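> tool_call: predict_assembly(chains=two)
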Amino acid sequence: MSEDILTTAAEWAAAGEQVALATVVETWGSSPRPAGSMLAITASGRMAGSVSGGCIEGAVADVAMQAMRDGKPQLLDFGISDERAWEVGLACGGKLKVFVEKLG
Amino acid sequence: MTPELLSRLQAARAAQRSVVLLTRLSDGEQHLWPEDALPGALADAAQQALNSDRTATLAQDGESWFIQPFNPPLRLIIVGAVHAGQALAPLGAAMGFAVTVIDPRGSFATEERFPGVTLNHDWPDEAMAALAPDARTAVVTLTHDPKLDDPALDVALKSPAFYIGALGSKRTHAKRVERLRELGHDEAAIARIAAPVGLDIGAVTAPEIALSIIAQIVARRRGQKGAKA
């Protein structure tokens, strides 16, 4: 298993997959993954890496699909002050920001 | 990220050049530094991110930037293509280290024993001098043989390597310390050597010893107390 998510994403893109990249850009409190952590997602449903302990990957994947369709990057906020966090269950109580962009 | 920027970033990383990716979070505009010229504050933040090997965010003219450094991988130099080395090399790779195994004994340092690992068959003094350990390098000697371990430790102690470990019992290490003193190394230098090597987890088998060593290297890198020998 490679921890080099960017290279995995680049390989998927080179193989003709549509790829989106999600990157943790800021964290507060007990977020499980540090800033710089990446999650690569393809339109076909492949995933590599992580931006949390698994709590928000599903929500991020939805936004990634959107970014692949319209090409627009998005900055997502997850945290206990955010209603969305209750929906996706950020059980750790941390807060984080995730930048989602289309690759290529 | 545009295909053009992605390929520039990957090319820089493949060439082991330190670069920084800067992303404007409002619209995804991106630059690669130092290849792209940037205004002073962004360039300063990029340099700082490289030096600290940590990401940062910067507010500049009402815009938020995410600053992500890409340094070449940390290096792990293993002296001795022995059984514990066979277990340590893949653990090092899994932790993100670029691993090199030094052993002039051709029957030990073989592709079959170390699949996919960079092997160096020079004598440790020459091999170590050529590899020039820096502050992002860990060095571990595993041979038990002073002819091979000592020259490697001599070079390592003169380098800024962030971790130096030497396999061997307290008794073996006491003799080693005597020899290193004769080579001119003072107490402060010798105290840099983790010996007996590895965290004390009661390791017995080669994979267990390798685990204790890689755990100690990670602890040292992350600045934890467990880094102390």
